[in-house]
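Same chain as my last thread, 697 residues:
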Amino acid sequence: MTQPHRLDSLLNPQSIALVGASNQLDSVGNDMLLEMHRSGYKGRTYAVNPKYREIEGFACFPSLSALPEKVDMAMLALSNERIEAALDEVIRLGIRAVIIFSSGILANEAGSTLIQRLHRKAQQAGVVVCGVNCMGFYNHDCSLRAFIQYLPRDLAQGHVTYLSQSGSALTALLWNDQKLKFNLAASTGQELNTTVADFMDYALQQDSTRVIALFLETVRDPELFVATLAKAKDRGIPIIVLKAGRTESGAAMAISHTGAIAGNDAVFEALFDRYGVIRVKTLDELAATAQLLSGARRAQPGGLAAILDSGGEREVLVDLADDLGVPMAAITPATTALLTENLDVGLEPINPLDAWGTGANYLAIYENCLQALMDDPNTAMGLLVADLTSGFSLHENFAIAVRRVTRRTNKPLAVLTNHVGTDTQDLAKRLVAEGIPVLDGTHTGLLAIKHAFEYRDAQAKPPVRAPAPSEKSVRDLWRKRLSEATPISENEGLQLLQAYGIHAPQCQTGDNLNNVIIQSKDIGFPLALKTAMPDILHKSDVGGVRLNLKNEDELRAAYQDMAQRLGPRVILAPMISGDIEIAFGIVNDSQFGPLVMIASGGIYIEMFNDRQLALAPIDLPTAENLVRRLAIWPILQGVRGAAPYDIGALTLALVNMGRLASECGDLIAEMDVNPLKLSQTGCTAVDALVITQPGTT
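reply #2:
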């Protein structure tokens, strides 16, 4: 039995008022009446419009106050000019939920806007609002279509929750992909006080929800959004997101390299990675993945097994699977023997399997071979690939084979067409009704299968275990220093890293030639000379770095040149060995908090964009995974006989960077460690840029 939820009065009301109901065809007021009729809603429904006594079979009342009862929810099909007064009446009568279809924008309005006033009033009264500027929702669990556009067609109930911040993106799938079966579909609009996260949370308590698909433009309630992602992961409900607006606007505002290469989109990548969220790029990919994951079965360990009726199309399947990283199942000798027993002479008993030979007794051949593939312990999921044509006896018999094998296996089994325009509609709908997904198009279908495997693997990973916290004295010392107004110098930045277990050199600072010469004797040659002028953030960009100075004469000349051009204050540091330059960073996202970054370092950090981010804190397995996903990973393993680099030291340093981010990240706007020199025997941070921000001390 589900627990009471904040959205019950909105999404599962016992009574509804249709305010602005109309008998004018193709109007919002009329369409919402027709949708209500079509849905078969069993609750009490009242039309509200002073012009009518009855509309479309509904009794009509002049106002909300004239209704025979206080309804749970009111649908407001009114102009912007009439919305505020209607909401005032809703609040006065104690109605708990409304849908506002209009935009909430008044022409030439000065001062407090209509949307702001509506938000304030609804919040103060505790009224749950869907909208403004939304299309409404379908909740098939209670046979309710609270929608502003009428579709004269019944839609079967299913297991996909689809939440969209775009109305067009909602109806694109809700109305047009008849292979997708929804339990809840909602257009959330401007999310006045009810966000996509609220709808997600509601869906997670519906027993009918097996997968949640999102068309997401922004996140308006980050805390609840993250909480629902965590809840979905715990409950084994996949979340699929099409994130629109992969903007670089965040990068344009960044001061450090870390902030520049992170941008807004990389933060969502890190968030989704932490909670096993599936990310897609198109509506087709969203639909295919949602359909595949809406079934009751999840991918097992292993790879994909497929049976086809074409050698050429098998080659395309193999090529695309390889491109996308979809593993094919390595079938056992026992399976190979079973295939050989059933196949016509000359056909190879391999996976993927082209089982079409003479055509004699083909139904038994396909059924037996598909069964053998599905029974193989290395098969995670099965696929029959054919260019289905509804009513064609060959393909109808292929469907029979799939149905029979599906009943005898506990693994997911799907049908895939090579061409998205194949005439599958009638046959596909029949198969889907029996719980067999039909995926249109080789590329899109394989992407859906890849995502099913990714979700399986993400669910198998243990949760991130935060490292042991730093000593309280260390945290307190550095939180106090980071909260002070004085900028953090590079030398202090290196000391901060040392305090958090990241190896960094002991440096000296100087502001005149004699002082620099004296300090060089303590450090020893060769050494590095860098400007320490406080207004210079990226030293190499202005010629503020001189490396490998071998003696006093070279140091003297380098200092005099640098002091004349940039100013007298400098840092002296020992030259650090290491062939590979890595970059570490911290960026504090305004919505999701501090993140840690690792990237290919040096002067090309932004050009190649070889970076990985993760929400802080991280553990060693997470750090190892981030390093493995870098494009330079093969180099780190050692090439052409070279010894591998010290990956253990690198990952431990990255974990410590995550610990720094989690303990002090609220006081750090951006932090760059670039480069961090990596060798076969360790790693050392050479440079550190810390940009502070106000935080909670």
